[in-house]
TrEMBL record:
Residues 663-673 have a biased composition (Basic and acidic residues). This is Immunoglobulin superfamily DCC subclass member 3. SUPFAM superfamilies: Fibronectin type III, Immunoglobulin. CDD domains: FN3. Residues 392-486, 487-583 form the Fibronectin type-III domain. It is a single-pass membrane protein. It comes from the Eukaryota. Residues 643-654, 689-704 have a biased composition (Polar residues). One of its GO terms (biological process) is cell-cell adhesion.
Amino acid sequence: DFGRSSELAFVVEPSDDIAVQEQPLILYCQVEGIQPITITWRKNGVMILDSENAFMLANGSLYVSRFQRVRGDGSSDEGEYDCMAQNHYGLVVSRKAKIQAATMSDFHIHPQNAVVEEGGVARFQCQIHGLPEPVILWHKNSMPVNTDNERYTLLPKGVLQITGLRAEDSGIFHCVATNIANVKFSREARLTVSGSHSTVYKDPMILVGPENLTLTVHQTAVLECIATGNPRPIVSWSRLDGRPIGVEGIQVLGTGNLMISDLTVQHSGIYVCAANKPGTRVRRTAQGSLVVQAPAEFVQHPQSISRPVGTTAIFTCVAQGEPPPQITWLRNGQILETSDHIKLKNNNSTLSIYGINQADEAIYQCLAENSAGSTQASARLTVLWADGLPSPPQGVRAETVSATTIQVSWEKPLQNTKEIIGYVLHIRKAADPVEMEYQEAVSKSTFQQLVTDLEPSTSYSFYIKAYTSRGASKASEVTVVSTLGEVPAMPSLFIKVINSTTVQATWEPSIKLGQHKGFKLYYRKVHLSQYTGPVLLASNVTAYNITHLDASVVYEVKLLAYNQHGDGNSTVRFVSLRETVERTVLNPPCDCMKDEQNNKTSTTGIIIGIHIGITCIIFCILFLMFGYRGRLLMCKNMQEQLSTPQIPRSQRSATGLVLNGATRRDRDDRDLNGKQLDMNELERLFPASPSQEQQEKGITSAHSLSAPHDETQISTLPLDEFSTIEEQPDPLPKNPRGSSPAAVAPNYGLANEG
């Protein structure tokens, strides 16, 4: 065995074949692995015993001396054969090889006579079934058709196309079908070429379009399309899904037949043949589907593994093909049965074995199969077992403590207890799969464990393993026990006063209530001991109105949820209706329509006030603008009428004399020949007869020492009383009520009356 793989595996497997009647047949099988290896054969799942007709060769191959499709006893050598190999570590089974007898039927389509005008297209067809697929050749006048002539096209399915017919193409045609089983001849058909080439216009027409085909990868597909018309139409091909056909392996046979060599799955699709009239958009189309199948093949093979006792072994087997293959698992050549500790997931791609023991040690095979073929792969599971490991823990017991707690106890193993370093308690809901199991570790001196956070009214399974530094013991006996039932939790309760005699009790649904049948509602006056109720309410009810209450007393309301295990704790609320009654008396209901009308009236008043304010601002701005313009006009007129005031040099202010904001120097620089004031406009802006009140009050000029310039307001006094005033830094005193404007000027500067 030196240099040979220790894994039992096939080097050569039997393959599909077509056998010839009365001829010998050999099916090959070669295996490698640790000897001794025993090889046996099966046909259709039944063991083949050595006989004169079929026996195994020394190299493990099966030899059938005279293959017969049907024997005298009614049996047949046709069927599915597989090879089995076994050694000390397990057994493997090869892929299934399908063996069929070579046959050939009679022709079921024969060529037909045809009369075609010169320049046209002739098509002959013959069809026959056989295994293997017969090869069909054509003869004209008892001689093979010259395939070098480009006008003659022979298609694999027994079709002969002749384009651009000439008079010499006339003759008698028949086809010859050949395979390893037989040779057969079809009936004859006569082709007659009549007349001369016609120049009459004819719309393009497709005589024969593509057929629907189902083939296997690496085969060749021929999609036929033959069209006629005058002028001769142009034939083109496309895919219905818009994808490009490509160029690799693509060939056009004759005038429009599409041949695709070395098929792949990507070639699957619907192909459209179009016959187009040259130079126009006139066209005719025909379509056919091509389905390319691919035998199953592995993307990921299962790998042999070694695992200690009590652990989990996982094998992964991923296969692809078209159509998608089905995956089957074998254990030592037998169909694998799933159980609590053997699970298949992901469409059988993943095999999981939980809590393995020595009985699980075997060769596991993954078989992938579809309509295009099958394949297999194998892997071995080795279970590691150390001598001297503890025996299983004894006397496992489980006792229910509460609705969420169970206490598990056990006794130490009977053998090999010195090396124990601890125990592991395996916990699982009885209804859950094995992979949902979880564990809790326990010290070696502890023989009981309180398992908490369990679900009420639920069955759980428990078992124990003892662990050493070299491995774990076998599992103890499994014990199953259920937790107690649990009453529902307290519901949340809210009380809302509806009116002076009615309150509404509401509560919220909650998962904390658990499985409950319904609610019970009680209420009473607080000074009484007797409750009214219970009022039984369904589990989907969340509100209840309590009516006909006395508004002068306080009430106690109590709510609880119940189920088959009893009543849960209750929620209590107190409510008084007295405040509601008093509030109703003191605060009568509002007239909502009146309040709404008041609100609308208030809003309207605010809007009107805003408009009035904006209007006032506009008028003020206009008044200031026209007033400023009037002052400028008056100042220009006064420059010509007023004489220069005689003021001692010492009394002159550093700022000079101010007239309407301008200094004397500025006034001297102005043009003295300016335009005279329009007296009509001046009278309109400054009426000549001011009111008595204005004459009594006079004009007060406001001066600000901090302002960058001074402003002088023009009064409505007659022009002969107009005067200029030299500004002083001292603040202006208030003008005494009733004094005349003429008396004000001398107190604050020299005045020169005009």
